[in-house]
Write a structure and sequence with these properties.
CATH class of the largest domain: Alpha Beta
Organism: Mucilaginibacter straminoryzae
InterPro entries: ACT-like_dom_sf, ACT_dom, AHAS_small-like_ACT, HAD-like_SerB, HAD-like_sf, HAD_sf
Structural class: alpha/beta
Strand order of the largest sheet: 3-2-1-6-7-8
Distance between the termini: 30 Å
Shape: globular
Number of helices: 19
CATH superfamily of the largest domain: HAD superfamily/HAD-like
Oligomer: single chain
Cofactor: Mg(2+)
Mean pLDDT: 94
Number of strands: 17
Number of domains: 3
Helix content: 25-40%
GO cellular component, one term: cytoplasm
CATH topology of the largest domain: Rossmann fold
Catalytic activity: O-phospho-L-serine + H2O = L-serine + phosphate; O-phospho-D-serine + H2O = D-serine + phosphate
Length: about 425
Amino acid sequence: MGQYYIIDFDSTFTQVEALDELARISLKDNPNREKIYKQIEDLTNAAMEGKLSFTDSLEGRVKLLEANREHLKQLVRHLRKKVSTSFSRNSMFFKNHQDEVLIVSGGFKEFITPVVSEYHIKKENIYANTFIFDDQDNIIGYDRENPLSQEGGKVKLLKQLNLPGDIFGIGDGYSDFQLKESGLIKKFFAYTENIERKSVTEKADHITPSFDEFLYINRLPRAISYPKNRIKCLIVGEIDEEAVLQMQKEGYNIRHKQNIEQKYLEEAGVLLCAEDQQPTVEQLQAAPRLKVIGIFGRVANRKLADMACENGVIIFDDPKYNPRNVDFIPKRVIAFMNEGKTHMSCNFPDLQPPRVNNAHRLIHIHKNRPGILAKINDVFAQHNINISGEFLVTNPQIGYVITDVDAGYDTEVLDKLKSIEHTIKFRLLY
């Protein structure tokens, strides 16, 4: 008895609804295109929210498309760039679970198969509708015998498949929830990275803002150790919306306040603040989860920078009126959180390690004392762990070590690294 993962395509595996995107391609020269786009989007949403039968929605949308095979080729190129970020970075999960992952969609194989096949998903595990074409390659309909073209189609299909094991469903729409309602799956995860439908989320077993979150709560291998939606990003003061949007796109749990409130700072892993809203040294010392500060302006004083460093908190700052800082600060913060890069920090030693594939990256921040690196490597040696890359930089206050190691070690190793004398902060990055 195994486990199976039933994954939706539109607005789940990809960021968009494919038929809506196809309409924008096929109708771009139609003078009434905006009106038709709206009709198609309304039909999509009505079905996804359970307000219209899927059969009626699908039939209505296909009639409005006026599409052909050439339009489908353009759509595939577009969809390949629109794979949801957290699915894209977890391609190794799909490679290692090829027999257990199924794409089940009310969309169409003609555009789904070429997109998901690049993620090691087997063609025989892709279940979707198929178009019917005329002699000129125009879409004139679809196979109405396919259960996925019908109301409750996913339920009908799963009954036919009769999979032997626990089944987990991941999707954003009402047709995905119907699997849970039918009793055919163990848990339904409402996927909200791209769109959140209240009529679906309120009935879900779990709301998952990213695929990382799904993998995390089910203790499955993943590209990053801790889902970003679980990391609180506190934004304080007047910060440009574009900077905030970059952090939202990364998936952080955003909280926006006009002034620093200690209860929110204590929970934050990331702080972005205006120049006039920097934390005090005392506030910083009472923020144990804080990893990085991005200041849209210059750091207030050397004492704050030094105290942050002593507490293992990196600071990136930039002149207040430098036009680049709207982009510069979020990018530096994201590069540190994703890869451990400290380049252009005002209080950490400089390190720009290359990304290593098929390895786990560990970050160890410690007081600058002799012999710490030897102790770190001794832990790896005792557990026969192969090091594929290691980097150490120091300043008078701290040593900053990044170690890339082969996967497949006991979690006891992480506890031993944390307990090394003079350790300030330790983090499993990915």
